[in-house]
Fold this protein.
Amino acid sequence: MDQEKQSHISETEILSVEERDVLALARLGKKPILKRRFTFFSILGFTCTILITWEAELIGGSAGLIYSYLFSFIGSIAVFTTMGELASMAPTSGGQYHWAAMLSPAWCRKIVSYLTGWLVICGWQAILAGSAYLGGNMIIALARLNHASYEPALWQGTLVYWCVMAVAILVNMYASKILPKLESFILVLHIGGFFAVLVPLVVMSKEKVSTKDVFTVFENGGGWPTTTVSVFVGLLGSVFATYGNPLATLPGFGCNFVADPPLD
């Protein structure tokens, strides 16, 4: 038994990435079709692009921000570890609907897989719209920040929204070859931008609150009936800022374009 296990390990170790990819898909009855351009670093950049963890604006006060983020982070990690294991076990472009078919009882396999697939499609559509809306709002906010007299009209926000959407579509259509490098650059920009914003705020801030206020003061700046409602509404922002982890395993990225899906 030990000799067979050692033989299997030695055979696996000498296989190239392409050969391991072919074997993993053959075990699932699939063939590799798409080019694997993404690496672990670039797919991490893609995840951070969606996460926008520090860029996301939260409500509920400093204490609400801290505790809601920790709460959503724990839930995100629970989902991420499960989906990561499934992606390693069955790295197919089908993603969730394929895994749902694999793990469901035979009598409900088709309906569960069908519903899961449609939920994934609706989720991607919502993500696309939400990302373009958030990007458009950031551009409008920067314009207002630099020009105090500027008051954006509603149609201008819609126009910027569609411009962001058009840029995303054009990049994916005509610049897909450089997309992994672009995602890696955004990862560096994401990390560098965090310190570029955090350091000036900490150093140049004239007034600083106490540690007790940071961890115990909850605010209701949105005019909600209670502070508890305000914190839970702010929880949506924390969830929005941490849901990128499972997105990396959705159809089209985590399993389609990574060079070594079971490992990366």
Remarks:
- The chain has eleven helices and no strands.
- The first helix runs from residue 2 to 13.
- Residues 1-12 have pLDDT under 50 and may be disordered.
- The CA atoms of residues 87 and 135 lie 29 Å apart.
